[in-house]
Specification:
The protein is an alpha+beta fold and 637 residues long. It has four domains: 280 residues, Hypothetical upf0131 protein ytfp, CATH 3.10.490.10; 90 residues, Barwin-like endoglucanases; 122 residues, Barwin-like endoglucanases; 59 residues, no CATH class. The protein is built from 20 helices and 27 strands. The strands form six sheets. Strands 1, 2, 3, 4, 5, 6, 9, 11 and 12 form a nine-stranded antiparallel sheet that branches. It is elongated. The protein starts with 6 loop residues before the first helix and ends in a 6-residue tail after the last helix. About 7% of the residues have low confidence.
Length: 637
């Protein structure tokens, strides 16, 4: 296999400025990641969202510890992270109808703009085809524009068009808009009217397209002209008009050269000839669409309320939110047990836990639980090897009965993307409530990814955590922590008390160099198996502890951890007992007998208040509701 993925080696570096008669340039044969002057292989993953597609990174760009010279397949979001680029969820799907499907042309469009690192995916598009715009570009070619196809004519006409979808970031989209603004408008095409299906089977809830302001060229039978090779197209136009031959010459190359060198006035004369000959048609179905700024993650399920609000002024287009997701697939999962994942909002109190927000119907169906277990559901089957425990909350204004809002931690824990499906089960936890009643507040949790224990702590009732996780929990190395696992068949969450120690750098680095591969590996990687990077913080637990927590058969399983407040209370009290004793006995001689017990009681009350305040400050991170309302918090990265 040839390892040279440069555009030059692949023949994708066409320069339309120097050879306009080669428009629309050379499109790739497969999906890929355009990374500067390289076009890397991008392989779809059936049934998964785009962020989980696999990119073949060249040697030296995979994870640490991989053999030199090896090529590494990594999730697309990881590859974008490696290039320090926006993730897939913050990108915009844009149909490449003309030269935007040519990597060489895209590189030149971004020559003075942002670094051209963007995915390009093959797709099938219904209702659209590549037509010809009724103007001549500054480079001398007659460019493309999308045209509407009548799908009711025949089976032949109903076949979808093969196109590319480019995925620019916000800065790349602005740069692309700038190159198109003279003759095109970027419009949002909802999936109800123009379904777009990626080669992975994923159906987009909508897509962008650059539609010509100049109209489209018509064939001799007055139907929109289909895009063909530029040399053949120019020859056909010249053959239909004597005036065009007078202005631009009699050969396609001569026309392209004269149009490029003749300036705007000459090209405008050519456009006027198109109108005089009666070749210009309109596209009312496209021109009635509106612009929008919806990212990939704002497409279904969470984006359609916002989408409808942005497009509610369009009276000629029926944009019902429940119909914006295409219905062409014959394998849609309509199970009532599965729920579509949306991101959680920023403006609610998370109570120191990872949260899943449920619509009222789902919340009632699960028995109004305090906790839920989340597992991902892919292609009709549930992944039983990876699950996470999360706090449940009802959302009165839910988008739909089958949509749940999940925090970033929950989504990363099970490796699910926005728009994919999960399965929920209720869970209950027996926990002492007296700390909340005395003013300590709710416990602060950290969700951790379970790793098999290192040899030094194997068969020992301890766990290993990194320094930051210990600090987030309010613990010092050697303190006692409470670990909550996954529910038993009855739904009760097992929990154990265990000492938590700081993991050494040597153990951490050794495990990082060993872990990798899917869930069948000895030390599987969340990046390879779940498409998650960076991962949740690690906790090292031995086998007997994992069994006690209900993690039998779980690879890349998760647990919730919090500080043991009983242990912390006793620890704080021990530190103050000596001071209390010295203060009491020192004052005994100065205070009459009748006041000694009052003094002792006051000292005890003072100690309890001090211990409570210290524990609350160290074990909880809540700064108060007013701060949250002013600044908000983010559920995503």
């Amino acid at each position: 296999m040839d390892d040279d993925r440069s555009l030059a080696a692949l023949g994708l570096d066409a320069n339309l400025g120097k050879a306009p008669w080669t428009y629309p340039g050379v499109a790739p044969e497969e999906s890929g990641l355009l990374a500067g002057e390289e076009y890397l292989r991008l392989s779809p993953v059936a049934g998964r969202r785009l962020g989980q597609w696999q990119v073949e990174l060249p040697c030296g760009r995979g994870r640490r510890g991989e053999a030199q010279g090896a090529r590494t397949w990594v999730p697309l979001n990881y590859a974008l992270l490696w290039y320090n680029q926006a993730p897939v969820g913050h990108r915009y799907p844009a149909l490449a109808v003309g030269s935007n499907a040519s990597p060489g042309q895209l590189v030149r469009k971004y020559e003075h703009g942002p670094m051209p690192v963007l995915p390009m995916t093959r797709a099938k598009v219904w209702g659209l085809a590549a037509g010809v715009s009724a103007h001549i570009s500054a480079a001398g070619y007659v460019p493309a524009t999308p045209i509407v196809v009548d799908n009711e004519q025949s089976d032949e006409e109903n076949k979808p068009s093969d196109m590319f979808v480019c995925w620019p970031s916000v800065s790349q989209l602005k740069a692309l808009d700038e190159t198109e603004r003279r003759n095109y408008r970027r419009l949002f095409l909802p999936a109800e009217h123009f379904p777009v299906e990626l080669c992975s089977g994923e159906q987009l809830g909508g897509c962008y397209a650059y539609v010509s302001d100049r109209g489209c060229l018509l064939a001799e039978d007055k139907t929109p002209l289909r895009l063909i090779g530029q040399h053949e197209l120019l020859a056909s136009l010249l053959g239909r008009s004597e005036e065009l031959r007078t202005i631009f010459g009699r050969t396609p190359r001569t026309m392209a050269r004269r149009a490029a060198e003749g300036g705007d006035d000459l090209r405008e004369r050519g456009r006027q000839v198109f109108e005089q000959e009666g070749w210009v048609g309109t596209q009312p179905e496209l021109e009635s669409m509106q612009s929008a700024n919806l990212r990939y993650d704002q497409l279904p399920p969470e984006g359609w309320v916002r989408c409808q609000r942005e497009l509610e002024s369009v009276q000629s287009v029926d944009l019902r939110c429940d119909r914006l997701s295409p219905e062409r697939s014959t394998e849609q999962d309509t199970s009532p047990d599965r729920y579509r994942v949306a991101s959680s909002p920023d403006d609610f109190d998370r109570h120191g836990q990872a949260n899943v927000r449920l619509p009222p119907a789902a919340f009632a169906k699960l028995g109004s639980p305090e906790l839920v277990v989340v597992r991902r559901r892919l292609r009709g089957s549930t992944d039983q090897k990876t699950a996470v425990l999360a706090r449940a909350e009802v959302v009165p204004q839910a988008a739909g009965d089958q949509t749940v809002e999940a925090d970033q931690i929950v989504r990363d824990a099970v490796g699910v993307e926005i728009g994919e499906d999960v399965v929920l089960a209720s869970a209950r936890l027996r926990r002492c409530r007296w700390p909340e009643r005395v003013g300590l507040g709710e416990p602060n949790y950290v969700t951790c990814r379970v790793q098999p224990a290192d040899l030094t702590t194997m068969e020992a009732e301890v766990c290993l955590l990194d320094s930051l996780t210990l600090e987030l929990l309010g613990l010092q190395s050697g303190d006692q922590a409470v670990v909550e696992g996954l529910p038993e068949p009855g739904g009760e969450v097992p929990q154990i008390r265990i000492k938590a120690f700081r993991v050494s750098e040597e153990v951490q680095q050794r495990r990082e160099s060993l872990h990798g591969g899917d869930q069948t590996g000895r030390f599987p990687s969340s990046r390879d198996a779940l498409g998650v990077f960076p991962d949740l913080p690690w906790v090292f637990l031995d086998r007997s502890t994992r069994v006690s927590l209900g993690l039998v058969g779980q690879t890349l399983g998760t647990v919730r951890m919090r500080a043991s407040r009983r242990y912390q209370f006793a620890k704080e009290l021990r530190e103050l007992l000596l001071l209390i004793g010295l203060a009491f006995f020192g004052l005994v001689a100065l205070v009459k007998n009748c006041w000694r017990w009052v003094l002792l009681g006051g000292l005890v009350a003072l100690v309890i208040v001090v211990v409570t305040v210290r524990m609350r400050g160290r074990l909880t991170h809540t700064l108060g509701g007013d701060h949250r309302k002013r600044t908000g918090s983010s559920s995503g990265r």
